[in-house]
Write a structure and sequence with these properties.
heterodimer, A: mainly alpha, two-stranded antiparallel ribbon, 2 strands, 68% helix, 3% strand, B: mainly alpha, two-stranded antiparallel sheet, 21 helices, 77% helix, 1% strand, globular
Chain lengths: 508, 494
């Protein structure tokens, strides 16, 4: 690929937003334009994904502008690049942005602003995954807040203002500590670079290599906790998860899809790339020392999330809490970094990475379906629903697929990810893994019970006259179903490239 | 006064001359609007002279018996002050309809005040600095009272009294410094202090210098809006005319920070002393930003809220000031002051954008209450977006100049072993999200009181647009401004 390719991928949605802001006035024009832009971006991303050379590995398609902030004391570059860890997540972002654009079809309130924010959100998330300069990463991480704040507070429902502010404050609080961590890493003597990875072809030596075995400005353990706080909030991990159900419940459908599908993955990505990738050989503290903490928090999140999910009566809140549980599997997989007897199997980390992608697609599909139900029934309160299967077969089928994938039915993508996580972590944390695996049982419980109460049972006369999903509604559903089945049947599509990324991440 | 002295002082003198010219023309003409353009265009003269000094650096930068300098540091602030004043005058054109007939006096006072500030940043003798400070403060007090409403008069009187009090404290502190070092010359003080430490003892043979430092910092702290000397800020901000508030919050604060940088880093920049005053400043920084942010939370009047916000920003700036002890080489040593200079410019463009947008909007709605901004995104879309952008820059969200400014000062603090202060700083930033975003939310979410469009006059609109462009440009491509700031900082670091 030519130099500047990744910049195009990242900034295409923002450019589309600018075009909408300046030139387009007609609502339906804006819809088509935004959908077109996201689909085009998805195509570019697929090309990028296919073009990434798995044989060579490492960071590819580097896009670099060295003199962005050239002063001593804060030498930052504009540095984009893609590797085995970020490639599938970028693909996920491209896919879910397009899905979210389709799912926004029915938005009628302030259409122009809505799509502008959605596209800006897409640029910021892509930037987070593709930035390899720490300061640039942080900038994209922060930019994401504003579109989310606007999207939840203007187009949300219920206590949307409260939820939007809560989301911003939690994330800002996390990233405030992250900033100190980043600065401390950069300023530690002999580092003097924001490069997050080493790129030999560009002559870049990254922070993971530079801080290995060195004394840092602040003890490595403190820096790790600062950074981890930000990622834990974003994932979200118990006990800093409480913003998530509120934000989800009150956000519009498409925003929930983006939030659960890709924004939470920013936390998982940071955990892998930074908390794990940079702290395996630091002096005085390694991430292996706190693997027990990761495993414990993960298991608490899995079980707590699942139990709370069981009690939910609001469909959307239910799906939101199930995210807490499912993202726990990611952390559980990561905790296998400590290894047994000095050897680390990569299975746990691979499973964690794969779980991020599968959770993105599955939960995306769930929120999409819940959105379709809500659009028609105007309620998400489970006791008010019931018997929808007879009336709306298409919607029911998509929820069934999402639900079965979510509870880990073999042949669908959730199963592959969870089994890989358990394979990786069982040797390391047999007891905790056993408890965590119980989360799958609970998942079966809440998913099946939810479907029974919502879609099956006696026919509900209330929704007699309302039509099932139409063609436009089904486009994003089909796209997600295909990806879920494809990964379930042929996981190599994603795992092959993740393996390249993970093997470069693990240094011990 | 030799020709050389005149050349060095030419920017200050030309501003003062412009003030006199404006008041004379004011006597002659009946229609007052041309005065605004006279003042705005007239500012090109000092700007040109400053540019001339920058590119043709005189052989010696010091003149008028060693009391005034035209080093890069002073010139940097000349640019900032002239630019701010020009912008305030242009944007104030809309506002000055509120005091019809007195535009001439208004402009003259602004120009006189800024000539004092320019002299302040250029002085290298504490007596000159004191005189310049008074020259800048007295017109400012009159300006604060310019609306002649109760609140405005109260603001003016409060400013005048507290300004006089702080001047007295400052003078007292300067006397101590003079007593300890035997000179009023800022570089001379450094030599005297170095002489004291030559025998290996610490500079604090007597506590006189530290006492002097504390009082000097307190005296200038009034102008910087530093806690615990911030009490005047919200009242003056609420009562004074909005252009005057913009002028005070940027120009006055920048000039105060400039002279404090010069005194601390030049006269008192020895290692032993720096360690002591750096701790003092760090503690004051923590108190200032925390107080400013907490008090801003519950404000209903946007000018009052911005008053507390300016206190908070003084706190962030003090973080950069405290970051004196870089951990390794000299490149780190300048990171703090360089960060402060960048932050001041970033803060200037941001605050200009915010206040101009507020002038444009409140000029039509007539209310400074935050609730008056409800639904403004529908009534004035572009102005609302620009105001939101400015508020996000104050909050420190990328890609704005405010974000990078914070990064620079916090980075300097972490580098100097003040990580705890940086942590307090970032937590404060999170707190500030509550009140900045509340205004954004009100503008974009709430139902407007009426559907009537809010339009702005061309000058204020253009000024807002230029300031907003500045805050984006410095936020995305900061490197040239940073080089500029670095050049300037070598003027005070010896």
């Amino acid at each position: 690929m030519f130099e500047g390719w990744l910049s195009i991928v990242v900034f295409l949605p923002a450019a589309a937003a600018l075009v909408i802001a300046l030139f387009l006035r007609n609502d339906s024009q804006i819809r088509w334009f935004a959908i077109g832009a996201t689909v085009l971006n998805l195509i570019l991303i697929v090309i990028t994904y296919v073009d990434y050379d798995r044989g060579i590995g490492g960071v590819q398609m580097v896009d670099r502008y060295q003199d962005w902030i050239p002063i001593d004391g804060l030498r930052a570059e504009f540095l984009l690049g893609i590797d085995g860890l970020s490639a599938p997540l970028v693909l996920l972002t491209g896919l879910l942005t397009a899905v979210a654009a389709f799912a926004s079809w029915r938005i009628t309130l302030r259409v122009r602003e809505y799509f502008i924010w959605l596209l800006v959100l897409s640029t910021s998330v892509l930037g987070v995954f593709l930035a390899l300069d720490f300061l640039l990463f942080f900038i994209f991480w922060e930019i994401e807040l504003i579109p989310m704040f606007m999207l939840i507070s203007i187009w949300g429902s219920g206590r949307n203002r409260y939820s939007a502010m809560k989301f911003v404050i939690f994330t800002l609080g996390g990233s405030a500590f992250m900033l100190i961590g980043i600065l401390a890493l950069f300023l530690s003597s002999g580092v003097d670079t924001f490069a997050m990875v080493s790129i030999p072809s560009e002559g870049i030596e990254g922070i993971p290599d530079l801080i290995a075995g060195k004394d840092l400005l602040i003890p490595a353990g403190v820096i790790w906790f600062f950074l981890f706080t930000a990622f834990a909030v974003k994932m979200p991990l118990w006990p800093v998860h409480s913003w998530l159900p509120d934000a989800h419940t009150d956000a519009p459908t498409a925003v929930s899809i983006m939030l659960a599908g890709v924004l939470l993955k920013m936390g998982g990505y940071g955990l892998l790339r930074i908390s794990v990738g940079m702290f395996q050989e630091t002096k005085g503290f390694q991430v292996q020392d706190v693997a027990w903490l990761l495993a414990t928090l993960a298991v608490i999140s899995i079980i707590y999330g699942a139990i709370v999910t069981l009690q939910q009566k609001d469909l959307k809140r239910l799906v939101a809490f199930s995210s807490v549980s499912h993202m726990g599997f990611v952390v559980l997989g990561v905790s296998s970094i400590v290894g047994v007897g000095g050897t680390v199997t990569h299975a746990g980390l691979n499973g964690a990475a794969l779980q991020m992608v599968t959770h993105g697609t599955i939960t995306g599909l769930m929120f999409l379906t819940v959105g379709l139900v809500y659009d028609r029934a105007h309620t998400r309160y489970i006791p008010d629903l019931g018997g929808l299967a007879l009336r709306w077969p298409l919607i029911t089928i998509s929820m069934v697929i999402a639900g079965l994938a979510s509870l880990g039915l073999p042949g669908l993508s959730g199963f592959v990810a969870e089994i890989t996580v358990f394979l990786g972590t069982y040797e390391v944390w047999p007891w905790l893994t056993a408890i965590g695996a119980f989360g799958v049982v609970l998942a079966a419980g809440y998913v099946l019970w939810m479907m029974q109460r919502t879609f099956f049972g006696p026919r509900n006369e209330r929704f007699q006259d309302i039509e099932d999903a139409n063609f436009v509604d089904m486009i994003p559903v089909v796209a997600l179903v295909i990806s879920i089945v494809a990964i379930g049947v042929f996981p190599k599509l994603v795992t092959e490239i993740f393996k390249v990324g993970i093997s470069e991440l693990v240094r011990i | 006064m030799t020709a050389h002295d005149l050349w060095l002082l030419s920017p200050e003198l030309s501003v003062a001359g412009l003030a006199v010219l404006v008041i004379i023309v004011d006597l002659i003409i009946d229609k007052k609007t041309p005065l605004i353009w006279l003042a705005a265009i007239g500012l090109l003269v000092p700007l040109g002279l400053t540019l001339g000094l920058w590119f043709n650096t005189p052989e010696t930068e010091i003149g008028v018996f060693g009391t005034v300098t035209a080093d890069r540091f002073a010139l940097f602030f000349h640019f900032l002050l002239i630019g701010t004043t020009g912008a305030v005058i242009i944007a104030g054109a809309t506002y000055s309809k509120k005091f019809v007939g007195f535009q001439g006096e208004f402009l003259t006072l602004v120009l006189l005040s800024v000539s004092g500030m320019m002299l302040l940043v250029a002085s290298r003798d504490v007596i000159t600095a004191y005189v310049a400070l008074e020259l800048s403060a007295l017109p400012a007090a009159a300006l604060a009272a310019f609306l002649r409403t109760d609140r405005s008069l109260e603001a003016g009187l409060k400013f005048l009294l507290l300004s006089a009090l702080s001047s007295a404290v400052l003078l007292y502190g300067l006397v101590y410094l003079y007593g300890a070092t035997g000179t009023t010359d800022i570089s001379g003080m450094l030599e005297a202090i170095n002489g004291m430490t030559a025998d290996g003892g610490r500079a604090f043979g007597s506590s006189a210098i530290m006492l002097g430092v504390v009082m000097v910092v307190a005296g200038f702290g009034f102008k910087m809006a530093m806690a615990p000397f911030q009490m005047w800020v919200p009242d003056v901000y609420e009562g004074a005319p909005t252009p005057v508030v913009a002028f005070l919050s940027i120009a006055s604060k920048s000039a105060a920070f400039a002279i404090v940088l010069r005194v601390l880093y030049t006269a008192l920049g020895t290692e032993g002393l720096a360690a002591d005053w750096s701790t003092l400043i760090a503690i004051l920084a923590a108190i200032t930003m925390t107080a400013g942010n907490l008090l801003a939370l519950s404000q209903q009047n946007i000018k009052r809220m911005l008053g507390y916000s300016t206190v908070a920003h003084a706190g962030y700036l003090l973080v950069g000031l405290a970051a004196v002890a870089g951990n390794s080489d000299s490149a780190d040593f300048i990171a703090g002051p360089q960060g402060v200079l960048f932050y001041l410019v970033a803060y200037a463009v941001t605050n200009l954008a915010v206040f101009f947008a507020i002038i444009a909007i409140t000029n039509k709605t007539g209310s400074d209450m935050i609730s008056g901004f409800a639904g403004m995104a529908r009534r004035a879309p572009v102005l609302s977006v620009l105001l939101a952008l400015g508020l996000l820059s104050l909050l420190g969200i990328p890609p704005t100049a405010g974000f990078l400014g914070k990064i620079f000062v916090f980075s300097a603090a972490v580098d100097s072993g003040l990580a705890w202060l940086a942590i307090i700083g970032v937590i404060n930033s999170v707190v500030s999200a509550f009140y900045y975003l509340r205004v954004v939310r009100t503008m974009f979410l709430d139902e407007p009181e009426s559907e009537e469009r809010v339009t702005a006059d061309i000058p204020v609109w253009a000024a807002t647009l230029v300031a907003s462009a500045g805050l984006l440009i410095f936020g995305i491509a900061p490197s040239s401004l940073l080089e500029f700031a670095k050049d300037a900082v070598f003027g005070v670091i010896t």
